[in-house]
Amino acid sequence: MVSRRERDKNYPGRLGVVGLAFAVAVAGLAWRLVELQVLDCDFLRGEGEARHLRVVEMPAHRGIITDRHGEPLAVSTPVASIWFNPRLLGEAREQWRALAEAAGVSMAHLEKRMKEGGRREFVYLNRWVEPDVAQRVQALEVPGVNLQSEYRRYYPTGPVAAHVVGFTNIDDRGQEGLELALDETLRGIPGKKRVIQDSRGRVVEDVENLRVPRPGQDLRLSIDLRLQYLAYRELKTAVQDHNARAGSLVILDVGTGEVLAMVNQPSYNPNDRAQLKSHLYRNRAVTDLFEPGSTIKPFTIGVALESGKYYPHTPIDTAPGYFRVGRYTIRDSRDYGRIDVSTVIKKSSNVGASKIALSLDPMRLWQGFYQAGLGTSTASGFPGEAEGHLPRSRTFPFREIEQATLAFGYGLSVTPLQLARAYAALGAGGELKPVSFLYREQAVREHQVWSEGIAPTVLSMLEEVVSDGGTGERAYVPSYRVAGKTGTVKKATRGGYAKERYLAVFAGLIPASHPRLAAVVLIDEPQGKYYGGQVAAPVFSKVMIGAMRLLNIAPDNLPPLHLAERENTE
C-alpha cells in the first residue's frame, strides 16, 4: 500500500506531465488556428463559397406590344414569386400553416409541393403574388422560404385585342397569337449574377454580375386600337342580338395590306387564366374556314370581264329563276328574267353567275380565284393560320356542277382574313398585297390580279349592291360611297348542307371612289333573320360610320344640298 508521503512525493511529477500535455494541446490549437486563418485561408474561403456562393438568374423584361399609335396592348410588370428549399422548410413544420395562409395557398398545396420537391433546393410555392402577400410571407422569416423577382404579362385591353395579341404562360413564354409568333423577338435574354446566400437561402451579398439582362424588343403592331374597340363592340352586340353561335370581323388597310382591326366572338380575357380555353382563345378570323357564298361572285365576274366575253351591260337570261346542271338545280330567290352582268351582282343571281362561269375556260376561272388569294394562306405568319381550299381537278375541266357552284361560292373554303385580302385587292386596282400584323411605313407589292380597268369596273358594280334595291343596302354609310357584297351561306354538315343553319356574310370597301378600308363581317348561325344583308351588312355600316370619323377620311358622296350650302357659305 502506497503511503501518503510517497503520493505527495510523486505529485509534482504528475502535475508537470499534465501541464506539458496541456501546453502541447494549446500549442497545437494555436498552430492549427494560424494554419486555418493564415496559411490555408484560401482553401477555407473556397469551401465556404462552395456552400454559400450561388449563380442566380436575373429575369429580362419582355418587349412591350403596342398598337400603331403607341397604345399598350401587352406590358410586363415586376412581381414577386414565393419559393422554398424543401430541406430547410421541412425543419420548420410548425410554421407551415402560417406560411400557407400568408402565401394564399392551401395546406394541401403546400404539402404536395413539399413532396414534389424531393431533394431539390428550389421549388415554387406561389407565382406572381400581390405585394402585400409577399410582405406577409417575408415577415414570417420561415427557414428556407424566399422571394424571387419576376415579370408578369398584363394586357390592358383585356378581351378587345386578345385574339390578335394572344398570351404567355407562367414562365412568360408566348402561347398564342402574336405573343407566340414573335416570341423570340419579344423575349429577352436573362442575366446572371454570383451571390452569397445565408443558411436560409437568402441573398446577403451580390458578388459580381456575370451577364447583364438584355430586354426583349418592343413591337409596334398594325392594329388601330380605336378601330379595334369599335369593331369589338359592334360585333359583340350583333352576335348577342341575333343569338348567334360566333362571329368575326376583319378590317384591312387597302393601301398597305395591314390588319387595322381583327375581332372575334366569343372572346376571352387573357389576364384571367381561368378563361384560357381553346374554344375561347381560337382566332376564328385566321383559323376557321367557311364557304364564302355570294361574296365570291365579284371575282367570277372579274374573270368574265378579263376574258373579253362579257361587259357590264352584257345580257344574261336567268328565267325562269332556276337552272339545271345535270341532275342538280341551281335557284335564285325569284325569277329576275333577262338582266345584265351588273344586275347579276346587284341581285346576287346564282343562275346568272353559274351561266357566266360555265361559259368560261375552267382553268382561267381557277387561276382568277387563285391569283386573288382565295383558298390559299395569306402568309401573315399568324400561328395556326388555315390554308383554305380551292378545288382543282387533276385534269381540267371541272365537272359542270363544280364549275357552276364555284361561281357563287360553294365548293371552296376561305378564312375571313383571306376574303378581306381579296376585297382589298379589288380596292387597290387589282393589286394583291401581303397581309401584315406589324406596322408598315409603306406598301409592299405582290402581284396584279387583273389587268388595268377590271377592278374599278367590278367596284362600280359592287356599289349597286349597296344602293336602293340591292341586297346590301343596309351597309349604307351616310355621305360615303360603299362597294360591297352580301352572302348567305348554308353550313356544310356530314352528308350535305344543313337546312336551318346559316352564315351571314358581308364584304365591303369604303370609300368606293378611292377605297381606304376593306372589311369582312361574318356572323355564324344567327337565329331568326339570317341573310347577310340583314345581319352582317348593318354591322359593317355601324363600324364604318365610326371609322370614317376616327380616321378623318373625307366624304365622297355629299348630298347636293350640302354642297350648295357649303358653296353659299364660302
Domain module tally: 2
Share of helical residues: 25-40%
By DSSP (H or I, 4+ residues per run), the number of helices equals 22
CATH architecture title of the largest domain? 3-Layer(aba) Sandwich
Structural class: alpha+beta
How many angstroms does the end-to-end distance come to?
Answer: 144 Å
Strand content: 15-25%
**What is the CATH domain class of the largest domain?**
Alpha Beta
pLDDT < 50 runs, ≥5 residues? none
Number of strands: 21
Might you state the CATH topology name of the largest domain? Beta-lactamase
Biggest beta-sheet profile: 5 strands, mixed
Question: At the fourth CATH level, what is the homologous superfamily of the largest domain?
Answer: DD-peptidase/beta-lactamase superfamily
**Basic shape:** elongated
Radius of gyration: 37 Å
The overall pLDDT, averaged over residues, is 88
Brief digest:
With 570 residues, the protein is α+β, with helices and mostly antiparallel strands.
Detailed description of the structure:
- Pathway: Cell wall biogenesis; peptidoglycan biosynthesis.
- Residues 247-544 form the Penicillin-binding protein transpeptidase domain.
- Its main location: membrane.
- The chain is of the alpha+beta class and 570 residues long.
- It has 2 domains: 57-220, Penicillin-binding protein 2a (Domain 2), CATH 3.90.1310.10; 225-270 and 283-551, DD-peptidase/beta-lactamase superfamily (Beta-lactamase, 3-Layer(aba) Sandwich), CATH 3.40.710.10.
- The chain is built from 22 helices and 21 strands.
- Strands 2, 3, 4, 5 and 10 form a 5-stranded mixed β-sheet that branches. Strands 12-11-21-20-19 form a 5-stranded antiparallel β-sheet, sandwiched between helices.
- Helix 4 (96-103) packs antiparallel against helix 6 (131-140) and helix 10 (225-241) packs antiparallel against helix 21.
- The chain is elongated.
- The termini are far apart.
- The relative contact order is 0.10.
